[in-house]
Amino acid sequence: MAFVGNDLIIAGIDEAGRGPVFGPMVLCIASIKKNDEENLVKLNVRDSKQIPLNERNELFEKVKKELLEWKSVQVEAKEIDELMNRKSLNEIEALKAAELIDSLKQKPDIVFVDSPDLIQNNFALRIKKYLTSKVKIRAEHKADDNYPVVGAASIIAKVQRDNAVEVLSEKFGDIGSGYPHDPATIQFLKEWLKEKGELPEFARKKWSTSKNALDEKFQTKLL
After folding, report:
1. What is the pLDDT of residues 64-74, one digit of tens each?
2. From residue 7, how far is each of 10, 34, 43, 108, 151 by CA, in Å?
3. Could you report the per-residue pLDDT of 56-93, keeping only the tens digit for each?
4. Which domains does the chain have, with CATH numbers?
5. Tell me, what's the pLDDT at 220?
6. Which of 2, 50, 137, 205 has the most Cβ atoms closer than 10 angstroms to its Cβ?
7. Are 11 and 29 in contact (CB under 8 A)?
């Protein structure tokens, strides 16, 4: 289905911090008039993972000035754990995406969203379950590459996620990126457990990384 017309309002949704063991997941929605979308193209807005840190921080301010509206939400580790007692992570994302859409003052004609579901349109169906407003949703894999407005949301979400991790590091010590593949994160987790005997408040307890670290701590105590 093609969507044309420069008077349209389009929006994009993306997340940052879906997989980390530490810190929040941040979702952002960005909206823009279709005839202003070229301004994002000129800024070379794209998937935030493809953008170096310094450039990403510069784009953060520039992108916001071009948008009609943007909103974001930080889903903290504790809330993720609580929601995962009843919902999958994809379902949590869909719930928060719907909340962001409903929070916009001017409802977009169509929302493009990066889909985490294997069958990409299933994510659109998940979001629609929670919406109170009637909005067209197009969920696609790599939407942050294909649509500048999703790239804009990706940049805002990523910068806000990075800022949240920086605040945690300032308060508790260097936690690394928060991702399980980061040696600094794993080292921090092991040292914290050794000293405190329990997971930090900003750790996602449902994550296998947390469970494995606790199991390792328990096994060490038995030796």
Report:
1. 999 999 999 99
2. 10, 6, 21, 11, 21
3. 999 999 999 999 999 999 999 999 999 999 999 999 99
4. 9-169 (3.30.420.10), 172-222 (1.10.10.460)
5. 53
6. 137
7. yes
